[in-house]
Every structure is written in C-alpha cells, then in structure tokens.
Specification:
This protein is 48% helix and 14% strand. It is α/β, with parallel strands linked by helices. This is 1-acyl-sn-glycerol-3-phosphate acyltransferase.
C-alpha cells in the first residue's frame, strides 16, 4: 500500500511540476521579461538578464521536483563549466536535460526546435534569452559560431533530439561543425538517468516505479588540434562527429 501511494503521489507531483513549468514560462513572458527589458542597458545586457532569469527559474523547477519526491540528482565537475567561449556538448536521455543544464549555468544559449518559438510557455524565454532556432541549419550553425566567438557559452545536444532507449547514437554533424569553426573550448557533459524516464519513447505520465536519479558528469576539455588540421573541412567535421559518438557511447556503457 505504501509503495502504491508513493507511485500515485509521484504521478500527481509530476503533473503538478510540468503545470508549474508551463504557467511559470508564460508568466515570465507576459510579466517578468517586459520589466527586465524596461531597465536601461544594451541588448547584450538585456539578453544576459533574461538568461540569468531563466537560470534561476529552472533551478526552482529542479528544486521543486527534488523536494516533492520525483527525482534526486548529482553533479560532478561543475567547476569545469561557465567559461567564456565554451561549447558544452551533451547527450540527451530525458526531457529535462536542457532545464537541468541551464539551472547550473547562469549565462548560456542553446539550440531549440523551431516549433517551440511559437509555444506560449517557452516563447518569452527563447526570444529574450537569445536561444537559437534550428529552422535553418546553416543559419543555426553561423549563429552558434558567432555567439561562441563573441565569448558566449553554448549548449548543444549533438544528437539534436532525445535518445531513443536501447538504440545507438546517431549524431548530427552540426555540433561538430560549430566546434571546429568557432575554435571554442569544447567540454563534454554526460547525463545519465536511472531508472529511465521522460525519454523520447515515453509520455510524461509513464513514470518509473521509484523516483529517478539524474547524474551529470563534466568531462575534460576535448583537444581538437588534430581535427582542425584535417582538410577538407567536411572530412574534419565527419571524423570529429564519429569521435563524439564513440566518446558518448563509451560513457554510456559505464552505466550499463
């Protein structure tokens, strides 16, 4: 009986959490960002304020999920993040990966699906924090490169979508192209969720039998000199993309 009550509580709490997330995102758009934008400052400063606002909001959301018994989490190597001009490349097992990452990084941009730009719960954050749409692949790459070269921190999931459970990684080449073109600091972040939940194959209400644990491990910076020396650049991008797939496959095998 206790286990059953715990399950139904977590199911209710999960629905509550995502409702809070949606309502909170809408309120940021209509109430908070207009106030922040009214404060004098350059477009760069306004974008930074919005990014930090999202950072705090996502931290509250993760804290809520933790406190009401949906999840636990751990972070290893956080001191390696938050460096100007840093490209963070991460695997993507769950729906809340970008929320978790942005809750740890005060000032960062990321790539978002173009349809989210029209979602009232996300539109305000995307526009004001300067997140980059994936609608036009080449423009997306150019904007990411420019952002990194200006000293910004960028988060990219090379797979571009959540991992399908029990399948091999199939990374898109955009992340590798950005890394090589921007000459950025490239830092891998491995995310692992146990038990599996909020994957591409599961609905939000298909919760596990116990609360899930999300771990984040920040790896050492990747050395790209050998890849940057390869010509033509298309081959360099392809080889680095394969290297990324092998790296994250090895990291995943450590948890299996």
């Amino acid at each position: 009986m206790k286990k059953r009550l715990d399950y139904y509580w977590r199911l209710f709490a999960t629905g509550l959490s995502f409702s809070v997330f949606g309502i909170g995102g809408f309120l940021l758009w209509v109430l908070v960002f207009p106030v922040l934008n009214a404060i004098p400052g350059s477009p760069l400063k306004k974008r930074g304020r919005a990014q930090k606002c999202v950072h705090y909001s996502f931290g509250i959301f993760i804290g809520l999920m933790h406190r009401i018994g949906i999840m636990t989490y751990e972070v290893n190597g956080l001191e390696r993040l938050n460096r100007p001009g840093q490209l963070i490349l991460a695997n993507h097992p769950t729906l809340i990966d970008i929320v978790f990452l942005l809750s740890r990084i005060p000032y960062a941009s990321c790539i978002v699906k173009s349809k989210l730009c029209h979602n009232p719960c996300m539109k305000g954050s995307i526009i004001n924090a300067g997140y980059i749409s994936n609608e036009d692949p080449q423009q997306m790459i150019d904007r990411c490169v420019a952002y990194l070269m200006s000293g910004g921190i960028m988060i990219i999931f090379p797979e571009s979508t959540r991992t399908v459970p029990n399948t091999e990684y199939h990374f898109q080449r955009g992340a590798a192209a950005v890394a090589l073109q921007a000459n950025a600091i490239v830092t891998p972040v491995t995310l692992h969720c146990s038990p599996s939940t909020l994957t591409k194959a599961e609905k939000w209400y298909q919760i596990p039998e116990r609360r899930f644990h999300l771990s984040m491990t920040v790896g050492e910076d990747m050395v790209l000199d050998d890849f940057r020396a390869i010509t033509p650049k298309s081959i360099a991008v392809r080889r680095f993309n394969h290297y990324l797939q092998d790296y994250f496959t090895q990291q995943r095998s450590k948890h299996e």
